[in-house]
């Protein structure tokens, strides 16, 4: 029996994929698996049984990844599962920044009692005129699941699209429309584009990337869209640029007290992934990955451990070990198993950065005490025996 806890509301379509072997628990500290969306887990204690965290979404900056790795907790996310939801809102954001739809709708609401509203609207509407996207230059920074969809969609709106991503994956490169132009430096995007949208993760290397220097390179009247994370943009510099009129609109999915209400800022309450389809997709993917890990030890789409898959666990017992990526680990594991006269039927070992994962199928039962012996090996963070 496995226990799971949801830190945020998770779509029922996903949760119903847990079998009767899974029970929800109200205390996260008692859970084998935690499902989360944007709740910050940085201050949370990790329970002793916690083996997996499923981020039903893309960004994992709300999860203490290093602490999870050290505790042998695998953190999964759901790459691409909410990308279409975000893409559609980015397109809406570009339209909101180009046509004064918000100003116009507000005018209608303010004049709802006006019996002459149809005629007055024809006079008032000149205050809400805008421009079209067709023919404008869009720069997309980060060509992952979301960036590729945004870039491709924008070409269908007649935009001239430039993409920048020095680490673009082969998968993304295949999905990118041939009409997207390759920007070799981010400065090209800053200097040349009319609209700039960022789709990179919040990392030490990306935090504050849109700072005063970047903004100064941009054209006067630029529209900047941020549906990635607030910390990517230096907020003070952005507010100055909005107030001076250098930035026409900053469309952001991340409200902060300082940005809410600033003239020119179009602030949305983090709705990018809040669609029925995205919520269902993310929940289904997160549950599937958690189940595959808990029941079979297979890892798919983890952010802190390598992907590793030995298929369905059959009748053999499967030992899985989460450990540091240091020399002679396999030698030490097999020595412990040999001392118990255990025969290895299959074995896989993969590494990712400082951590590694080993799966070993044994063609007999695993005697008590083996877990403790394996745990004594320096660098081993967790041992699970799946019988
Ligand atoms: N507003 C919302 O509701 C949502 C926001 N997000 C945010 O959007 C981010 C991106 O999401 P996905 O596209 O699904 O992730 P992804 O991992 O598929 O793509 C990220 C891309 O950024 C690129 N990248 C990393 N550092 C870069 C740099 N310095 N310059 C240029 N490119 C760089 C990577 O190579 C990768 O291709 C997430 O990390 C999350 O923070 C994601 C989903 C929903
Ligand atoms: O997937 C992401 O990174 C998001 O920002 C979506 O967050 P949410 O699941 O809507 O709280």
UniProtKB/TrEMBL annotation:
Domain ACT stretches: 318-387
Entry coiled-coil feature ranges: none
UniProt keywords, alphabetically: NAD, Oxidoreductase
Biochemical pathway: Amino-acid biosynthesis; L-serine biosynthesis; L-serine from 3-phospho-D-glycerate: step 1/3
InterPro entries, A to Z: ACT-like_dom_sf, ACT_dom, D-isomer_2_OHA_DH_cat_dom, D-isomer_DH_CS1, D-isomer_DH_NAD-bd, NAD(P)-bd_dom_sf
Catalysed reactions listed for this entry: (2R)-3-phosphoglycerate + NAD(+) = 3-phosphooxypyruvate + NADH + H(+); (R)-2-hydroxyglutarate + NAD(+) = 2-oxoglutarate + NADH + H(+)
GO molecular function, one term: NAD binding
EC identifiers of the protein: 1.1.1.399, 1.1.1.95
Class of enzymatic activity (EC top level): oxidoreductase
UniProt cross-references to Pfam families, sorted A to Z: 2-Hacid_dh, 2-Hacid_dh_C
Purpose of the protein: Catalyzes the reversible oxidation of 3-phospho-D-glycerate to 3-phosphonooxypyruvate, the first step of the phosphorylated L-serine biosynthesis pathway. Also catalyzes the reversible oxidation of 2-hydroxyglutarate to 2-oxoglutarate.
Family membership noted in the UniProt record: Belongs to the D-isomer specific 2-hydroxyacid dehydrogenase family.
Name this protein carries in UniProt: D-3-phosphoglycerate dehydrogenase
Record organism: Extibacter muris
């Amino acid at each position: 029996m496995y226990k799971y806890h949801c830190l945020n509301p998770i779509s029922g379509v996903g949760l119903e994929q847990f079998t009767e072997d899974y029970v929800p628990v109200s205390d996260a500290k008692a859970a084998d698996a935690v499902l989360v969306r944007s709740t910050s887990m940085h201050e949370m204690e990790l329970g002793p049984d916690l083996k997996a965290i499923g981020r039903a979404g893309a960004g994992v900056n709300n999860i203490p990844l290093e602490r999870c790795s050290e505790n042998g907790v695998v953190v999964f996310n759901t790459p691409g599962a909410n990308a279409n939801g975000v893409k559609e809102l980015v397109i809406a954001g570009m339209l909101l920044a180009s046509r004064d739809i918000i100003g116009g709708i507000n005018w209608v609401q303010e004049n709802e009692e006006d019996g002459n509203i149809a005629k007055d609207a024809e006079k008032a509407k000149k205050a809400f005129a805008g421009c079209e996207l067709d023919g404008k230059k869009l720069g997309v920074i980060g060509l992952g699941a979301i960036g590729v969809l945004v870039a491709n969609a924008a070409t269908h709106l007649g935009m001239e699209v430039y993409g920048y991503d020095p680490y673009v994956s082969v998968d993304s490169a295949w999905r990118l429309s041939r009409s997207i132009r390759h920007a070799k430096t981010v400065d090209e995007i800053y200097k040349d584009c009319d609209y700039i949208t960022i789709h990179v993760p919040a990392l030490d290397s990306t935090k504050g990337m849109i700072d005063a220097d970047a903004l100064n390179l941009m054209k006067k009247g630029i529209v900047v869209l941020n549906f990635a994370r607030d910390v990517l943009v230096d907020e003070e510099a952005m507010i100055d640029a909005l107030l001076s009129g250098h930035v026409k609109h900053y469309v952001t999915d991340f409200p902060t007290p300082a940005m809410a209400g600033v003239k020119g800022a179009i602030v949305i309450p983090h709705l990018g992934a809040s669609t029925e389809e995205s919520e269902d997709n993310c929940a289904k993917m997160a549950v599937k990955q958690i189940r595959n890990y808990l029941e079979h030890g297979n890892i798919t789409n983890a952010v802190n451990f390598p992907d590793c898959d030995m298929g369905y666990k059959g009748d053999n017992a499967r030992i899985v070990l989460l450990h540091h990526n240091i020399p002679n680990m396999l030698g030490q594991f097999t020595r412990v198993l040999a001392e118990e006269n255990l025969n290895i039927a299959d074995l896989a070992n993969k590494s990712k950065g400082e951590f590694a994962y080993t799966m070993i199928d044994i063609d007999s039962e695993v005697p008590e005490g083996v877990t403790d012996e394996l745990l004594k090996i320096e660098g081993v963070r967790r041992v699970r025996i799946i019988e």
